Amino acid sequence: MSLAHALLTALLERSCSGSELASRFDRSIGYFWPATHQQIYRELARLEEAGWVESSAVEAAPGRKRVYTVLPAGCDELRRWVDEPREPKAIRDELLVKVRAAAILGDADLLSTLALRLERHREKLAVYREIERAAFSGEDPSREDRLRRLILQAGIDLESLWIRLCAEAIEIIDPDAER
């Protein structure tokens, strides 16, 4: 997976300027493939150089605002990438190693780390639930909406898993701690 494929996906959903793309990205794909606005602009330049997107100046806009559109070669690349089978990635999270280390050390103070993670996962779950309420309340959703909803559900399930893991670890380490 690369940022290029994430940007091609977002631009196929709707052509837009770099600033609009960065803003949309923050509220969608960025939840599971984060990128800074600088990274997005650098990658847009690479995509244009590769012939996968083209940009055109917006005449009425101040400055050098450009709108990016995916070219056929960009569609071909995205299709090639989607069609390419890949093995699942291994879980790689520092917290899991810390919990394992705390089990061995016995006296490690992992509670503040666990409490912070628990709070952040609850916050993100609340954001996902709000997106779910706002974007997926209609009847008879399209195939596209059903697939988008599936991705959101994966985020909800993942945050719920982390909340359970953090809460259980806190309970095991300190049964009297607030959760």
Description:
The structure is a single chain. The protein has 179 residues and is mostly helical. Helices cover 64% and strands 7% of the residues. α1 packs across α4 and α2 crosses α3. The protein starts with a helix and ends in a 6-residue tail after the last helix.
Question: Which helices and strands occur, and which strands form pairs?
Answer:
Layout: H1 3-13, E1 16-17, H2 18-26, H3 37-50, E2 53-57, E3 66-70, H4 72-83, H5 94-105, H6 111-135, H7 143-173
Antiparallel strand pairs: 1-3, 2-3
Helix pairs in contact: 1-4, 2-3, 6-7
How many β-strand runs? 3
Average residue pLDDT: 91
The percentage helix is: 55-70%
Structural class: mainly alpha
End-to-end gap = 36 Å
Biggest sheet overview: 3 strands, antiparallel
Beta-strand residue fraction = 5-15%
Shape: elongated
Task: Report the total helices.
Answer: 7
Strand order of the largest sheet: 1-3-2
Segments where pLDDT lies below 50 for 5+ residues?
Answer: none
Radius of gyration: 21 Å
SSE string: HEHHEEHHHH
Summarize the structure.
Helices cover 64% and strands 7% of the residues.
Question: How would you describe this structure in keywords?
Answer:
7 helices; 179 residues; three-stranded antiparallel sheet; mainly alpha; 3 strands
